[in-house]
Amino acid sequence: MSRRILYTFSFALIVVATGAQAAAPQQAEGAVRPGHAAIASAHKLATDAGFEALAQGGNAFDAAVAVAAALSVVEPQSSGIGGGGMFLLHRASDGKDIFVDARETSPAAVDAKDYLAANGDLDKDHSLNGPLSAAIPGEPAGLVWLAEHYGKLPLAKSMAPAIRIARQGFAVDKRFVDEVRYRKPIFERYAAAKSLFLVDGEVPQAGWVFKNPDIAKTLELIATKGNEGFYRGEFAARLVDDVKKNGGRWSLEDLASYKVKEREPIAFKYRDWQIVTAPPPSSGGIAIEEMLNILSGYDLAKLDRVHRTHLIVEAMRRAYRDRAQYLGDPDFVKMPLDELSSPMYAAGLRSTIHPEKATPSDLLPPYMTPPQGPHTTHFSIIDKDGNRVSATQTVNFVFGSGMVVPGTGFLLNDEMDDFALVAGKPNVYGVVGTDANAPAAGRRPLSSMSPSFVVGADRIGVIGTPGGSRIITMVLEGILAFIDGEQPEKFVGNPRYHHQYLPDVISAEKNAFSADEVKALEAMGHKVSESERTWGFMNAVSWDRTTNKLHAGTDPRQTSGGAVVK
pTM to 2 decimals? Predict the structure, then answer.
């Protein structure tokens, strides 16, 4: 695709070396391996499961399987084997970075008319709830892939903690209860979901011991038979039969043909730091690269907070505009990635940013020719040898589709909502898209998941978060804070703000800005909307090679997280 299709400007043809692709920065003398490990995840029991795998002789990749499987049990509202994931890996033995794409795929029989309301808008009930909302899960295949290609342990060992927790049960917290209450009307549609998450038809109380022997059996099936146990045979037939009975469009061939994809991570240099992050079908990596390329032309450290925020928001605005226009599944859609990641293109975008005035989104070239969750989880791991994992996985919205196939113990995702089911109509996160992200047989929906590494001369960070469309900007803000010297324990709790092109507003957590800062931003032409609710559940770890000290931080906005160094 020609660069001419992008909205460049004639005076923008400036080579900006600070945004160019580059090899990893030369590391200063320091520890070549940590000698101990750090794990940060959304639940203490999942973090413990990861350390149990390490204690069994496993590496970071085995620990990732253990953490992911445990999260399927203890955090089903955010991820699970009925969903998908993206795993960014670094193998210390040869320095190789790998991106494992276990994103869900559209069933072959998908029909866009299923998601149209009578008035032509998106039918949000069909896109978010029940079998039509569910794409073909990728998480089980992703865990099998990690174990077979990068781990040292058999799945039976790495999944053992999750299976034990499922059988013994665990006490749920207020967050779990509140989110069950939110999705109770959907659970009531499906007998297996109602039986699993409600107690005598009612929302449980915090402290209720949640046991799930069905998911223990499902995990044992995967541990014993691998992909054959989930994607083929009797278990696959059970999934397809129940999905079809409830009005969905899955087939046995959809499951049997699912494949994990290994992709080349996006890697680029921002100042003296190497950023390694997620490629499409994630939109996160290319958007982060575009934003940091734009910001590389400014000395952010010398700016007051209002002007720094203004420039970061303007970079966000432009990157999200391009996300809406161009990005999709790389196996189906030709995308102008070289142009979007070009320092010259970033220079052109930078030249359109007024240092004192906001650019209204409707003054940017239109994102298409008319007409046309935050529930995810993230964990970060560094092991004693320096292997690392940044993994984001999801069932999309709170408790996914709300549907459980009887006897399986897990929720189906509602990832079909991440497609542009109706071009130009926003999904549950307010994100719009074009035919580049339209559903089609076997296609993977565009994602915001942005597992990332930040590699400097003496400090390495592993970062990511859930948060729907806000994932990308949260990871951007985390990267900038880490580069500024903040440790994970600090930056995972920083107040957050976000702009995604449309709607044209800076969303901000409460107290993210002072009253004077809001007034100054509004004087520049920005609209600022502060919210009582918080965003995300960031989990990050880091390694300081000069001191050989590991750090781990879990988001203080939630109480269930576990961040441990040992």
Answer: 0.92
